[in-house]
Amino acid sequence: IKAYKRAIQPTKPRNPIDVKEYIDTQAKPHLNFVVLGHVDAGKSTLMGRLLYDIGAGDKNKIRKLKKESEQIGKGSFHLAWVMDQTTEERERGVTVSICTSDFKTPSANFTIVDAPGHRDFVPNAIAGVSQADVAVLSVDCGTDAFESGFNLDGQTKEHTLLARSMDISTIVVAMNKMDTVDWSATRFFQIQDELMDWFKKIGYKEDQIKWIPLSGFSGEGVYKIPYPEEQNWYDGPSLVETLEAVATKVNDESRKE
Predict the structure, then answer these.
(1) Pairing between strand 30-36 and 108-114?
(2) Are residues 124 and 159 in contact, defined by beta-carbon separation less than 8 angstroms?
(3) Distance (Å, rounded) from C-alpha 80 to C-alpha 42?
(4) Residue 65: alpha-carbon gap to chain centroid
(5) Taking a C-beta distance cutoff of 8 angstroms, is the pair 240, 169 a contact?
(6) How do residues 68-115 score in pLDDT, each as one tens digit?
(7) Which letter does DSSP use for residue 131 in this model?
(8) HSE (side-chain half, CA atoms, 13 Å) at 211
(9) Contacts for 121 with CB less than 8 Å, ≥ 6 apart
(10) Which tens digit of pLDDT belongs to each residue from 146-202?
């Protein structure tokens, strides 16, 4: 029988825990948010941009994805590919499965649930909404794009109804692709009015809806990239700042319960 010697030196964990970082992480509010919107509303690109700008995305990986997307003639898709990881998603240009990603900021921890926008994958979208505290609704503000996603066969109404039916109490409306309409205030408020009428019809109040003009592709309004000069009519918080404020509010409310 082989004899084993007792360890003289105490063993050490391979990946030692940073106690201070662990305590700080546990002390921060945590928010799960689902990303909704009509197919082609730029949801995955928006979240890819957010992760990249926040420093949660691997820059080498982003460069690799950009090179790969350019090789197949889809150069603008590299940010979306941070979230859309399967071959089917990349070939079709739409999110098929539910993808989650975690990230943190100095004041909060987050989990993104990226739900499919295409009507073929509504069950997946339902599963995504059920995991979330808050919804981020990506709206394509491009010419005629909002209308196609909102009227008749669009998924914008369908997704907001799902959010309402599952007691999502806060919706952050990411007014996306504002760069394609030269940051037009007229376009922003036109869409805001139409959407607010719809939100009220399904039971939301004005203080439950947040509105941020932004561009998921170029980054203005997402985190720290400043707006161009032509955007001189909105001076509110960025998307990340809005989510931080919502995370703090949701955390405070849960503690009271």
Answers:
(1) parallel
(2) no
(3) 8
(4) 19
(5) no
(6) 544 444 444 444 445 444 444 444 444 444 566 788 999 999 988 766
(7) T
(8) 16
(9) 95, 96
(10) 998 888 667 788 888 888 988 899 999 999 999 999 999 999 999 999 999 999 999
